[in-house]
Amino acid sequence: MCNSKKCIQCKQIFYNPKNGKKKWDETKFCSRDCYWKSLKGKLPISGCSFGNGHKRNLGIKQSTKHRLKNSINRRGSKNWNWKGDKSLPCATHIWVRNKKGKASEYKCIDCGG
After folding, report:
1. Average pLDDT over residues 15-29
2. SS3 for 2?
3. 45-61 residue pLDDT tens
4. Coil, helix or strand for 44?
């Protein structure tokens, strides 16, 4: 039984760490990093957890323009976690503090203090 193989991605020789044959015959990569690098830019295989229509854009960063567009499109009621009138009072107070600032920064309406 051969205890060493050559990685398909990085071409390095790697060894069977457990000396078992269970998955060793199917092993093609020296690490998970090499496995994911080999999938970069490929369409998902059938039965993959990504689902149909998803591309693997691993390692490809979005442009700042694209990130800003996504961020603007997910604000307020367009956000998946939006609760509207069903939000808790503490969440409403946090929202007011973030938008208007702390109450101590404003003068009192009644006494002006």
Report:
1. 75
2. coil
3. 555 555 555 566 666 78
4. coil
Which sign does the torsion angle of CA 30, 26, 56, 43 carry? positive
The pairing of beta strand 13-15 with beta strand 4-6: antiparallel
DSSP H stretches of helix in the chain: 32-39, 64-73, 89-100
**12-26, 44-58, 65-79: range with lowest mean pLDDT:** 44-58
- Please count the residues of the chain: 113
List the structure tokens of 109. Answer: 């309406």
The two tokens of residue 58 are: 């691993």
67-87 in b/e form (b: 16+ CB < 10 A) is eeeeeeeeeeeeeeeeeeeee
